[in-house]
C-alpha cells in the first residue's frame, strides 16, 4: 500500500531500465527483484511493468474505453523517445526544454495539434 524507496526504485528500473552502474551496485534493494543484468526476477508481489505495458494500460486502454482513437505505433515510439530523454537518471543526460520542443513528437504531432486547437 505504501511506497518505499526500494519499491519506487523498482518501478523506475521497470520503466526506464537499469540504473547507472555505480548506483546499481549500491542499491541493495535490487536483490531478489532483479538479476545482475537488470532483468526482473521473482516478481509475484510486484509484477514487472515495462514501459510498453504501462503505456497500454495507462494510455491506450483508457482511450479505448472513451472511444478515442488509439495512438499509432510511430507516434507511440516518438512519445517514448521524448519521455525517456526527459527521464534520464542523471540530470545532465536529460533533454533540455529546447530539445524537447524540437523533438519528433512535438514537431510531428503535438505542435500541429496545438495550432489546430488555437485556430492558427
Report the count of strand segments.
Answer: 0
Strand content: under 5%
Tally of helical runs: 6
Helix content: 40-55%
Which regions contain 5 or more consecutive residues with pLDDT less than 50?
A: none
Given the helix and strand composition, which structural class is it? mainly alpha
Instruction: Describe the largest sheet.
Output: none
Mean pLDDT: 92
N-end to C-end Cα span: 47 Å
Radius of gyration based on Cα positions: 17 Å
SSE ordering? HHHHHH
Shape: globular
Number of domains: 2
Task: Give a quick rundown of the structure.
The chain has 120 residues and is mainly α. It is 54% helix and 0% strand.
Q: Care to describe what's here?
A:
With 120 residues, the protein is an all-alpha fold. The chain has 2 domains: 1-49, no CATH class; 66-118, no CATH class. It is 54% helix and 0% strand. The longest helix is centred in the middle third of the chain and has 15 residues, at 51-65. It is globular, with a radius of gyration of 17 Å.
Characteristic terms for this protein:
2 domains; mainly alpha; 54% helix; single chain; 120 residues; Kinase-like_dom_sf
